[in-house]
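User: Second chain of the day. Same drill as before.
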Amino acid sequence: MSKSRRPLLGHLAILAIGIAAPLVFPAWQSQMAELWLFIVFALTWDLVGGQMGYNSFGNVVFLGVGMYACVVTQVGLFYQVSAYNDARGGGATIFTFDPRQYFEGLAIGLPVGAVLAALTAAFLGSLVLGMRGHYFAICTLGLGVAAGELANGWEWIGAGSGMVPPNPPGAIGDLSRFYYYLAFALAIVTFLGLRWLYTTRFRFAINAIRDNEDKAEAMGLRTTQIKTTAWVIAAFFLGIAGGILGNLKRFIDPIDTAFAGATFGVWMVLMAVLGGKGTLWGPVIGAILFQVFKEASWTYLLGWQRVALGLLIVLIVVFFPQGIMGFLRERFPAWFGHRVEGVKDMDAVEETKAR
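Assistant: Same format as last time:
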């Protein structure tokens, strides 16, 4: 088999597995749908945190904006949002959605969530992306907390009582499977979109910012504009992911679901670091391993699952600071196309340099 065909066959195998997975393991559809969304989380965080070197804890803001924007649009197209939330969704007796309304609301709600999340990133980026290092990280952490508190006190979207997405009509059938395929499609589009983006000059620009922002500015790069653009791209995909996640969870709590910095906000970082920052496949691998570990700890270490996740963070930072991809690249460079010279060849090179 030629080397050029191996990546194609690998991608086709992943596509086939993704399509068949909910049919083979129907009891795990929700968890697998969450896995695809986690892959989106990790990929989009790595665009800013890995490729550009700006460690953000505020990406959860875009997730929450997209989640609320999508669900509010789904409801607002047909009913009064305030009345709907006063009735806490109203059940099937007050607010009903036929299949056409449900799919129309979702088809409009997901793009609305993506656009509003992107606009939020553009606005916030123009304000905070002038900061660097730990100042930026702390600022974005505060943005996530502030967004959660704002949603927690906004009665129109349910405030602290949360918001219930529209009840899906029975014609949809298996809701988990429906949202699984939506999440799967989003993960594929996100991966392919970022893979294409990393073949353009934009990747060189954000890598230059990561390596030395002052030199990048001296070379004429408009660093603030480039950084904001990267954040907007990440927010766009996160906004769609938020809409899918909100409907999948069937309940939006402003602190624990939409703007969950202590969980989703931290997990985005953890998954990318676990797999290897600054790589395309690293966040994907990290998300898969993290989801498997999370579900196993929730199943077998109930009550101690957060302790287990905390230990996982410590182990990653101490033993895998470069992530799994970095570890493999260091130990097996030939796998990644790096030629390793023999000891005699290296000695000859050193002698030549000395002369």
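Confidence is low (pLDDT under 50) at residues 342-355.

User: Great, on to the next one.
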